[in-house]
Amino acid sequence: MVQHTSSKRRMELEAPDRFRPVVDHELCRKCKKCVSECSFRALEFVDGTVKSIGGCVACGRCINICPVQCIEVRQIQSMFPPHANFNEHVRRGIMSQATTGGVLLTSCGTDIPYPVMFDELLLDAAQVTNPAIDPLRETVETATFVGGRKGMLEVKENGRLYMEKDPGPMVAMDMPIMIGHISLGSVSYNAQKALFAAAKELNILAGSGEGGLHKDFNVYSQNVVSEVASGRFGVTGEYLKRTAAVEIKIGQGAKPGHGGHLPGEKVSALISQTRMIPLGTDALSPYPHHDIYSIEDLQQLISVVKEATEYKVPIGVKIAAVHNVGAIASGIVRAGADFITIDGFRGGTGSTPRIIRDHVGLPIEVAISVVDQRLTKEGLRNRVTVFAGGSIRSSADMIKAIALGADAVMVCTAALVAMGCRVCQQCHRGVCSWGIATQREELVSRLDPEVGAARVVRLFRSWNEELKEILGAMGIDSVESLVGNRDRLRYFGPNSKIAEIMGVKHVGEGWG
Amino acid sequence: MTAFDVWGERKKVEAFDPMTAIERKEGCVVIHADRRDEDGRLIHYKVLNQLVRQIMLEGERHIVLDGVMGHRYIASTANRKDLYLEIHGTPGNNLGAFLDGPTIEVYGNAQDLTGNTMNSGKIIVHGNAWDVTGLAARGGTLLIKGNTGYRVGIHMKEYGGTKPAMVIGGTSKDYLGEYMAGGTIVVLNQGGQIDRSPVGMHLGAGIHGGRIFIRGKVEKHQLGPGAVMNQVSGEDAPELEALISQFEQTFNTRVPRDWESWVRISPASSRPFSGHYDPTSV
C-alpha cells in the first residue's frame, strides 16, 4: 500500500501541475484501487469521493487499473500566456530551479521536438529490374553475428578458401536487435528478469547495465553482455567470464560525458548485493574511466578484459554519439574492440541532468552513417560489429539504422513500453507505478516478469517479421546485405546538407 | 623485420616454442620472461600470461616469473587463494587486474594500474608502483614499499566483509583517493621529512566512503571537495596498527608511531550529491 499524505501545499510561485486525473463520479464504484495504486500520490479518497490532489505525471496507472474505466487523465491547458520563445517548457524550468536551486533531473530520452531524420528517410523496393522476395515462402536471413570478424578469407590458386587469421570469438543472434544496457538499480529485479528472459527466448543479447549481474540471472548469462563502466560496480573476473560478451561503457547517449549516479535511496539490499557497495550510499560512477585518458589507454582496458576472459568472448566499447564520433570510432577499432555501440542523443536513461539530455550529442542517424563511412574509408569496417541505439522506436527505425550502416540496433525504451512504461519521464524518482523503474517491493511486484518477457518477445518477433517484409520487398535475402546499403535510402526532408553528410541521395535521384 | 598490423599488434606472436621458457624446480615453477625468439623479440605478454594460466591450472602453488620486462596484464583474474606469484623484474601495466585471491610479490618496480579492480588477494611491491594503483579495488591488500604516482586508490570501495587496504611506504601524488567509496589508504612517508607533505593536491576529491591516513603534513588547500581532515583517534589505532605491522613484517622495517604527526582524511558525507539535483520533472 502506498502511504498518502492528506494535503499538499504548493508554494505560490511554483509551477502548476501539468496533468489532472478526472474521475467520473457517476460511474465510480469507490473501490479506491486508483488511490492505492497511484505511487505519485496524486489521488485521495476524501468525503466519500476520489479526488485529485495534485502531482499527477500522467503515468496512466489509474486509467488502466480502474475496473469501470471511469478515470481519464487530462492535460491541464496551461495558464501560461502564449509565447513561442519563452515557451512553457522553458518557463517551468526557470520556476523549478528558482524554487530548488538544483540541477534539473529528468529521465527517458529527450522530449524536445528536434527533427527526426529517421522520419525523413524513405526505403527503396524492388520493381521489374530486380525481383521482390516473399518472406513467407522463401528464406530471408536475419541472423546477426556479433564479434570482431578479424579473419580474412583468401582464395588460393588451387581454388581453396584459406583463413589467414583466427576470426576471434563470435556470438550469433537470431535478429539484429540487442536489448540495451538497463541496469538493475535503474530498473527493478522483475523488469531486468523479464528483459533477460525475453533475450533468451529470442536468442538475442541483452545488456547488464552497470551494476553487476544478480546471481539469480546467471541462467541468462549466455544472452547477457556484461558492462564495465567507470564505477566498476559488480565487476569481477567471474562476472566477465560467464557472459556472452563484455562491453566497456564510455558514454551513454542520454548523458554523454556524465557519470552515473544512483542515489542512496535506490541502493536497497538487493542493489547493494549486486553492485557490491554498502546499503544506502550513493553509487557514483566517475565521469571518465580514470584509467582511460586516451585511445592507447582504452586499448589497455580492452586488452586486460581480453586477457581476463581468455580471448573467449567479444569485447566491445559503447560511446555516446558526439561531434567527432567518426574519429573516435576509428580509434576504438584500432584499439582492438570487437564491437562498437553508438548511442544517439535521443537515447533513454533512468536519470540524467536535463541540460545534458536535451542539448548534448548527435542524432544516431547521422552518427551511424558517419561512423560507417569513416570506418569503410579507413579499411576498418569489416573488423567490427556496429550497434546503433538512441531511440530506435520501431522496426522502421531499425531497418533505416541498418541501411545507414549499423549491423544491429540496441533497443531499450521500446522494450520497456512493451512492459507497461508510459514514458512519463519520472524514472529518477524511483516510484514507477508500473514496477519498472523502482526498487520498492510493493511496486516491483506489479510487474509479472513472465508477462513482461512474453510481451517483449512478441514485440521483437513482430519487428523481425517486418524486417523480413521490407528485405523481401527490396529483393534482399539477408539482413547483412542491407548493412550500410545507403543506396536503398532516399532523403525526403528540408535539409539536403544532412543527406549529403549521411551519404544518402535525395528523393528523386536514381541510380545514376 | 617485425610485422605490425594497423595499431602495432605484433603478428605471429608464437614464433618459437614458449614451453622452453618454463623451468620446473623443486617446489616452484620458473618462467623466464626474458627469453627471446630467433629474431631477438621478447616473449609477448599474451604468451607469458597463457603460460602462467596453464601452470596455475596444473595446480602449482608457487610460480616465479623471472626477467619480466614490462609484460602487461600479468595474472589478471587469477583466483587461486593459495597461489604465490613471485615476480623479478618490472611487470607492466595492469598487474593483477581483477585479482581474486593470490599473493603477488614484485621484486622491482610495478608500473601503472597495479591491482586494477581487485577483489581479494595481496600485491606486494618492493619498489615503486606508479599511476592509478589500486583503481576501484573492492578487497585485498596492496603493500608498496616505495612511492606511488598520480590518481592512486581512485574509487576504492568496500562491501560486506571485504575492505581494500593500501599501504604506501613513501609518497603519493595528486588525486590520491579520488571518488573513494570505501577501504583504507595509509601513506607512511618513510625517508621523507615529517614537515613536508607526502601527498599532492586534490586529496580525496569526491570521497564518500573509506579513510586515508597520512604521516606528515597536509595543508588544507591540498584537500579535494568532499574531504575533511582530522587527527587520528584511538578508534583508528587497531586498524592502523594491523596494517603498519603487516608492512613492517613484509619489508623488514620500522615505522614510527608518532601519531601527533598523522592526519586522517575522511568523507564529509556518504551522499555527496544530495541537494545538488532538482528531481521535479518539469
Walk me through what this model shows.
The complex is a heterodimer of chains A (512) and B (282). By secondary structure, chain A is an alpha/beta fold. Chain A has two domains: 19-75, Alpha-Beta Plaits (2-Layer Sandwich), CATH 3.30.70.20; 144-506, Aldolase class I (TIM Barrel). In chain A, 29% of the residues lie in helices and 17% in strands. In chain A, the strands form eight sheets. An eight-stranded parallel beta barrel of chain A has the order 11-12-13-14-17-18-20-21, surrounded by five helices. The longest helix of chain A has 26 residues, at 449-474. The radius of gyration of chain A is 24 Å and the shape is globular. With 282 residues, chain B is mainly β. Chain B has helices at residues 45-57, 237-251; strands at residues 22-25, 28-32, 62-69, 84-90, 100-107, 120-125, 141-144, 165-168, 181-187, 209-215, 227-231, 262-267, 277-278. A twelve-stranded mixed sheet of chain B has the order 1-2-3-4-5-6-7-8-9-10-12-11, with helices on both faces. Chains A and B meet through helix 3, strand 5, helix 5 and helix 7 of A and helix 1 and strand 13 of B.
Low-confidence stretches of chain A: 1-7
What percent of residues of chain A are in strands? 15-25%
Q: Which strands sit side by side, in order, in the main sheet of chain A?
A: 11-12-13-14-17-18-20-21
Give me the Rg of chain A, rounded. 24 Å
Overall 3D shape of chain A: globular
End-to-end separation of chain A: 66 Å
CATH topology of the largest domain in chain A, anyone?
TIM Barrel
Which of globular, elongated, flat, extended, rod-shaped describes the shape of chain B?
A: globular
- Give the structural class of chain A: alpha/beta
The CATH H-level homologous superfamily of the largest domain in chain B: Glutamate synthase, alpha subunit, C-terminal domain
CATH architecture of the largest domain in chain B: 3 Solenoid
